[in-house]
Amino acid sequence: MEAKGWISGDESAKEMLGRVLSRARPFLLLPPLHRVPLRPRNVLEIVGPSPSAKTHLLIQAALTCVLPVDWNGVHYGGFDGLAIFIDLDCRFDIFRFSHLLKLRLASGSISEIDREQNDNTKKRSSIAYDEELYTLCMRRFSYVRCYDSFEFLATLKTLHYRIQKEKAYGNCVHMLLIDSIGAFHWIDRASTCLPLRGNNRKSHSIQTVLETVVQEIRKLLLLHPMLAIATKATLFGNRAMNEAKCRNLRKPDTSYSQSGGITALQLPYREYMPSAWQTFVTHRILLRPSDDHLAVSDDQNHSVYFSEWLLPSLSFLDKFIVKEAGVFLVA
């Protein structure tokens, strides 16, 4: 009956375009993720060593997701949706998230946050913000912590019902954030196999577990169009990479292998995730720390980081710092 109703349904061209474009509306995130427009069902991988501000970028994306577009005549530029944050590293700081949200609310708009680079308006003992909007945004942020691969799989399998429940209340999930996708790789690799809990005699290898993870995330993206962002810690051959080396870094070739992903030899870091995950990723950005520090208006020295888009490949680097109010580009 549902299929018959869908076939016999009628809508104008304006209604059809509005429905399609609303589902495919790009996510314009804050720097340094602003260079490439991201759409629902895209999978963005944020790669970098520890520390390289990967979690800060996830928090910044989550804040943009839960904030409204406008509230009481004030423009916040958010997506007015829900964000699901799956913490596999078990190092998420909810107080940091709350503090950044209060600063975003107190600033009034994104443009005012950008101007914070040039003045020192954030130095005050208390933050004035809208309590009602703060409570609304915190309710839109769903946090899940997993301690092993099977808890992660169980979480993914139950997310569909959680999202369906939120939709029943008129809420729409816009982002799925994972920090970090390779957290259990080395722990699982220490064992030759991963025994399933219960009486099932089967055992899963690292390959099959990651393949199942990819399948579950793919199902979620098909049923609930949203943007998936995952961080991944990696190791570089040379840790002491300064700004000059970063600027002279040869860009990797973006040609695809037969399996659909970038080959390991074309990446500037060692890839350890199975091909099932590598081919699933649609966008990739690389973060690198540097030995440089920048003194800004708050009289503090901030570590400088570099970001580089690998997929799609862009021909330049962005330089940014992490301040009290979040991540900011620097010239």
- Structural classification: alpha/beta
How far apart are the first and last residues' alpha carbons, in Å?
A: 59 Å
Rg, rounded, reads 21 Å
Which architecture would the CATH scheme give at its second level? 3-Layer(aba) Sandwich
Side-by-side strand order of the widest sheet:
5-4-6-9-1-10-11-12-13
State the total count of DSSP E strands.
13
CATH superfamily: P-loop containing nucleotide triphosphate hydrolases
Strand content: 15-25%
Work out the helicity level: 25-40%
Order of helices and strands: HHEHEEEHHHEHEHEEHEHHEEEE
| Spatial shape | globular
Uncertain runs with pLDDT below 50, 5 residues or more? 109-125, 237-265
Can you tell me the number of structural domains? 1
Q: How would you state the average pLDDT, rounded?
A: 80
What are the defining features of this structure?
331 residues; alpha/beta; Rossmann fold; 9-stranded mixed β-sheet; two-stranded antiparallel ribbon; 34% helix; XRCC2
Description:
The chain is of the alpha/beta class and 331 residues long. The chain has a single domain (32-329), classed as P-loop containing nucleotide triphosphate hydrolases (Rossmann fold, 3-Layer(aba) Sandwich), CATH 3.40.50. Helix content is 34%, strand content 22%. It is built from 11 helices and 13 strands. The protein has helices at 2-8, 13-23, 54-66, 94-107, 110-114, 131-139, 149-168, 185-189, 206-223, 243-247, 275-280, and strands at 43-48, 70-71, 74-75, 82-87, 141-145, 173-179, 194-195, 203-204, 227-233, 283-295, 301-311, 318-323, 326-329. The strands form 3 sheets. A 9-stranded mixed sheet has the order 5-4-6-9-1-10-11-12-13, with helices on both faces. Strands 2-3 form a two-stranded antiparallel ribbon. A hairpin with a 5-residue loop joins β10 (283-295) and β11. The longest helix is centred in the middle third of the chain and has 20 residues, at 149-168. The protein is globular and about 60 Å long.
